[in-house]
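Weekly structure sync, notes
Attendees: PL (lead), two postdocs, one rotation student
Agenda item 3: pending single-chain targets
PL asked that the sequence for the first pending target be pasted directly into the notes so everyone works from the same version. It is reproduced below exactly as submitted, 270 residues in total.
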Amino acid sequence: MSAGRLEGKVAIVTGGGQGIGEAAAHRMAQEGARIVVSDVNEESGEAVAGAIRDAGGDAVFVAADVARLEDVKSLMAATAEAFGRLDVLHNNAGVHETSFTADAQSHELDEEVWDRVVGINLKGVWMCSKHAVPLLTESGGGSIVNAASIGGMVGYPMGAAYGPSKAGVIQLSRVMALELAPMSIRVNSYAPGNTDTPMVQKYYASGPPEEREMIKRQLLGTHLIPRMGRPDEVANLVVFLASDESSMLTGANIVIDMGTTAWRGVRSDG
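Predicted structure, written out during the meeting:
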């Protein structure tokens, strides 16, 4: 059997307790990486790390809120203590306004919700990357993979904080790619479309009950591939960006959106 694409590497996955983060943690472990699963939810994070170990992989869980500096520092210290190195940082942790409030439109949104969303989605990416750089450099370089969104490229309702935060992730990734290239650290982002995750399910459920199915149909109607994306499909892209197979890629934003941004229409069967 050939070695996995991430054999010998150590990877941190923030927001690894569910959704794309959970799928990415499992896929990277299957490709030979040792995984640090990080999440604010200790129960789900521990469950993911345990499932990886049960499948024969090597994983630990570290509780961390990526918007808190001390948590980020502790995450990096725990990674060094557990595995002695770091090769891949997957900045996946993210939240949406509708996770906190039903008043999610821009003219209704509470300042505290705005700050929380931007603090996790954008500031968290910057802080984790900043404090991962010393470990990545000690390992001879590595890959930072940042979760953006097509919500950072086109407008969606109830996304006044989420959209700008994800647009910021795309631009931050470009700046970091430029600045970290001399350290042999590649930085890329990816922009998923509507993917079947708890966060997207919460978005569907945020409208009035009589409109929820209509919202889902409208979003699915923008897909050229007429279905929801799956977390494991996005995880396959994460593995590629984390691996040496993507050695020519840095500063890129890869769109993985079922064709949503390729056109300006809605399918009649949507």
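Discussion points:
- The CA atoms of residues 152 and 167 lie 4 Å apart.
- Residues 111-138 form the longest helix (28 residues).
Action: rotation student to compare against the earlier draft before next sync.
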